[in-house]
Input
Amino acid sequence: MDTTQLFSLKGRTALITGGSRGIGRMIAEGFLAQGARVYISARKAAACDQTAKELSAFGHCVSLPADVSTVEGAQGLVDAYAKHEGSLDILVNNAGAAWGAPYAEFPESGWDKVVDLNLKTPFFLTQALTPMLKKAATDHLSKVINIASIDGISVNPQETYSYAASKAGLIQLTRRMALRLAQERIVVSAIAPGAFASDMNKDARDHGDEVKGRIPAGRIGTPEDMAGAAIYLASRAGDYVMGSTLIVDGGVTHAR
Output
């Protein structure tokens, strides 16, 4: 048994949606450290370009701005990526949105925006990239990692109806897609993050001392915590993890 290369991503390509900030950026930096060529996408071109420029200090990182909330936008990202690479080893479906409003006032716009980006996009983007994922799956398996949330597993007090529903749906979609794509040598899994400092999780970002008091681990997640989980699933180490969701939350789910 040789475990020295279990977590290596040397020579592999990765595409990360929502890669300009937060969890997507954490994963991108981790993949670069393990030797991958990384492509990040985000809706805001300037932010995506700036992050890619900063991450290029750690390896090959290219900005591919795109709005993947529609099938047309997702196909545009596929076309842009195809100008750089002929195959894809790792896809991280991380782009997401949240919406909070009281039950009686929750708007259709807050439902459609969140469910489309959090649930529809991972399916259709993966579908469009499947030929490239299959092409890469030669002497190793290709990987798809969906970024879910602990809010899709257990319920918190916030009235984020479409977010909770979309992330629960993504966890089930991960199981269904994993069974289908295993025959193509493509492994599908998911990560359910807890509290990580980001623009989406402003509580963890701005009120870390208060938030960590509710976390059994006694702290919010670090970039290394998220990068480690993603590297595990993306590398040879995670080849036998199919359809499962890895909870990375410092124990919060078990304490709820």
Remarks:
- The mean pLDDT is 94.
- Residues 29 and 215 are 25 Å apart (CA to CA).
- The first strand starts at residue 13 and ends at 17.
